[in-house]
TrEMBL record:
GO terms of molecular function: acyltransferase activity, transferring groups other than amino-acyl groups
Keyword Cell cycle tagged: no
Membrane-spanning parts: 12-35, 47-66, 87-105, 125-153, 165-181, 187-205, 217-238, 250-267, 279-304, 310-329
Taxonomic lineage from the root: Bacteria, Pseudomonadati, Spirochaetota, Spirochaetia, Spirochaetales
Keyword Nucleotide-binding assigned: no
Domain of life of the native organism: Bacteria
Protein name: Acyltransferase
InterPro entries: Acyl_transf_3_dom, Glucan_succinyl_AcylTrfase
Domain Acyltransferase as annotated: residue spans: 4-328
Keywords: Acyltransferase, Membrane, Transferase, Transmembrane, Transmembrane helix
Record Pfam families: Acyl_transf_3
Amino acid sequence: MRKHYIDNLRTSIVLLVIIYHVCYIFNGVGVLGGIPNSLSLPICDGFASLVYPWFMVLLFIIAGMSSAYSLEKRSTKEFIASRTQKLLVPSTLGLFVFHFITGLVNTRLGGAELSNVPLLVRYFIYVLSGTGVLWFAQLLWFFSLILCLLRNIKLFEKYRLKEKKSIYLPVIIIYLSSLVLNAPIITVYRVGIYLASYLIGYYVFSDENVVERVEKTVYISLAIALASGVIYISSFYGSDYTAPSCLQNVITNIYAYFTSIFLIGIFKRFFDKTNSVLSYLSASSFGFYVLHYTPILLIGVLVSNSGLNVYLRYLLTLLLGSISTLLLYEVIKRIPFYRYLVLGIRNKR
């Protein structure tokens, strides 16, 4: 049976990511990768810092849950083939046919002088610089392979089938994993905490009994999330929320974990349903995720060089970026072979 609350939660996070990236490209708190010298709004910087600790943690937890449900219907070979098509192809081959555009803009914004570099070499630089949001798909594919190896260890699978699991103990794992396997400079590659989140989703939250307990204790999770969130904001508001001093703080990780399980519980309780709009958004959410950053960045650059009011800059970037993402998705998914490279959608036989 389809778990609509997971679909709706995943869709909500993707839409949140789109809003976050509008705040991110104009950020005024020193997060690397934004548009240089752009005007920013403190309230938007505050929003970005508020969601950053938990929204990708939650997305990986959901991915782990979804992997468990997928493996109930697929063999390991079929699962890896499916993950390769959907995740690896768009995050590698898609760089060469679409996301190099992001790389071109990024290198220009970064002040790189490439006019004397041969065109072919420049193209490969743009490709390598265009990864952007595709890091999520790259890590998720890698984690899927690790999961397939771990499933052969009986001790782990025995734990997954265990009737009673703690819904609070994983917060310790989340915190400890935040301290390890963090890539230098490219801070989005937080391999430790994201791998832990993915495996927690698979081994813990794919169990319906666990989700039912999360649903029943949702207001306890909310209280802990709010309390830790207040401490987190009071400690790090106005600073670089991607810095290790923030992301490896124990309060930050308590806030990230309990916000995540609160949202799982609240969506299970109130949003385990669907309709034609929600069904479309669920089916399209990965495509929106893959495509959204390029139009947002391009529109952000255009409005940052205008004389528009700062509020209008944010609003237009979000509105036009979202519309452009939708149109791009609808066009690209109809182009044979190209849709496979960019979105991982095979041609219909």
